[in-house]
Amino acid sequence: MTNSLRDPKVAATLKRLHARATADWLVFLRALPAVLWGWLRGRSAMESAIPYLKNAYIPINAEQGQVLYALARAAQAKTIVEFGTSFGISAIYLAAAARDCGGRFTGTELEPNKVKTARENLATAGLDAVATVLAGDARETLKEIAGPIDFVLLDGWKEMCLPILKQLEPQLRPGAVVLCDDIKAFAKTLAPYLAYVREDGGPYVSQLLPLGDGLEFSVYLGASEVRS
C-alpha cells in the first residue's frame, strides 16, 4: 500500500516547513504585550495574539500530521476539505492522503500571502495535481465544494468553525470524519462548537484527542440525525 509521506519530495518539504515553523516564537514575542493585557481580561494567549499571526505558521506538529494522514487513509477519504490552510503544512499531510486514496484535497485560506505560499509548498511536494487552495472567505469559497465530503479539518478562525461545519454538513457523507484543532487553546471560543458536536442525540459521535492543543475527533452519523 502506497504511503506518500515517504515520497522524498513530500518528506523534504515537510521537514523544511516544520523547521521554519519553529520561528513562530518570534511572532509571539512581539505579541507578548497584547497577550499579557488579554490575560488580565480573561482571554487566552492565542486569542490575544491573533492580530499578529498573519506571518505565523501555527502549524500542526509532525505527530498530529501523521494522525491526520492515518485517519484520512482509514476513512478512505476521496474528498478532503480544510478550513484554514495557512502555509500548507497540514495541507501536505492531507493531500498526501488524498492522493493515496485516489481523491482530492481542497483547502481555503483568507490571507493572500499564505495562499500563494501554500500553493507553492504543495507544488514543491509534488502534490499540486491533487490539491487546490482557494483564496478568500471560506463562507464563499467553500460553496464550490461538491459532496459527498469524506474528511474535514477545521483549523481557521475559531469563531467560524461551527458556522463552517454547519455550512458543509449537508455535503458530508455518513461516516465522514470532522476534526477541529486547538480545542484547549480556544476553550471559550470553541465551547459552542463542542456543545454542537457532543450533544446527546445529535448527528455526531465526538471525542477529544490529546494531541497538541487538543484535537476534537467527530464522526458524522448521517442526515437522519441532523437537527431541524
Describe this protein's structure.
This protein starts with 7 loop residues before the first helix and ends in an 8-residue tail after the last strand. It contains 10 helices and 7 strands. The model has no long low-confidence stretch (mean pLDDT 89). Strands 3-2-1-4-5-7-6 form a 7-stranded mixed β-sheet, with helices on both faces. α5 (62-74) runs parallel beside α6 (89-100). The radius of gyration is 17 Å and the shape is globular. By secondary structure, the chain is α/β, with parallel strands linked by helices. The protein has a single domain, classed as Vaccinia Virus protein VP39 (Rossmann fold, 3-Layer(aba) Sandwich).
Could you give a quick summary of the protein structure above?
This protein has 228 residues and is an alpha/beta fold. The chain has helices spanning 8-21, 24-30, 32-40, 45-49, 62-74, 89-100, 112-124, 138-141, 161-168, 191-198; strands at 79-83, 104-109, 131-135, 149-154, 172-181, 204-209, 215-220.
